Amino acid sequence: MAHFAKLNQNNEVIAVHCVNNDVLDIDDEEASGIAFLTALHQHDLWKQTSYNNKFRKQFAGVTYKYDPINDVFIAPQPYPSWLLDDNFDWQAPKPKPKDGHYYWNESEGDWLEFIS
With pLDDT > 70 as the criterion, what percentage of the chain qualifies? Predict the structure, then answer.
C-alpha cells in the first residue's frame, strides 16, 4: 500500500489517497501511482508520502504544504509566532521548559504550566 498526497495549485495537500500495491510498478512506485490516480480522478498534482516518514520529511495530511524546492511536506504553522527551523519543524519563540507539563499560550507569548 502506498500513500499519495493530492495537491492544489498552491502545493497545499487537499487529500491523501492509498493505492494498492497490485497497481504499482515496483521499479517506479511513485510514477505508476501518480498515473493511476491521475486517470482515476482527472487530477494530475500528486506526490507520494511516506507513512513511516522515510522520505519527504513526514507523512502528509490535509492542510500540509509541499515544498518542491526541498522536497518535503511541512505541517501547518501551529501559532503565528512560531518559525520554521532548518529541519522543517515549527519552533516556539522560547524553548519549552523541561520540568512539568506546559502548553503554548500565543496571547502571552510564553509556555504556561498545566495546573491540576
Answer: 100
C-alpha gyration radius of the chain: 18
CA distances from 96 to 46, 88, 112 (A): 36, 18, 9
Alpha helix (H) ranges present in 28-106? 29-41
The SS3 of residue 21 is: helix
- The string of pLDDT tens digits covering residues 6-44 is 999 999 999 999 999 999 998 899 999 999 999 999 999
With beta carbons less than 8 A apart as the criterion, state whether 93 and 83 touch: yes
Q: Cell numbers for 50, please give them.
A: 511516506
pTM, two decimals, is 0.89
Q: How far is CA 36 from CA 12, 14, 19, 22, 32, in A?
A: 20, 18, 8, 11, 6
Other Cβ atoms less than 10 A from the Cβ of 44: the count is 12
